[in-house]
Amino acid sequence: MNTPKDAAARRAIKPVICYPVDTLPVPDMAAYQNARAKMTKVDEVLVPPRDAGCFTVPAGHFFRIVSVEGAQVGDLNLWARDNLAERFYSGKTRALHGTHITTGQRMWTSFPYLRPMATITHDTLGWYGKDEFGGSVHDVIGTRCDPYTHHLLAGGQYHHCCHSNLTRALANHLGVPVAEAEPHVHDVLNVFMCTGFTRDTGQYFMKASPVRPGDYLEFYAEIDLLGALSACPGGDCSAEHSSDAAACYPLLVEIYAPEAGHMDAMTAPHVSGYDRSHG
Question: Hey, where are the domains in the chain?
Answer without folding.
Answer: 43-246
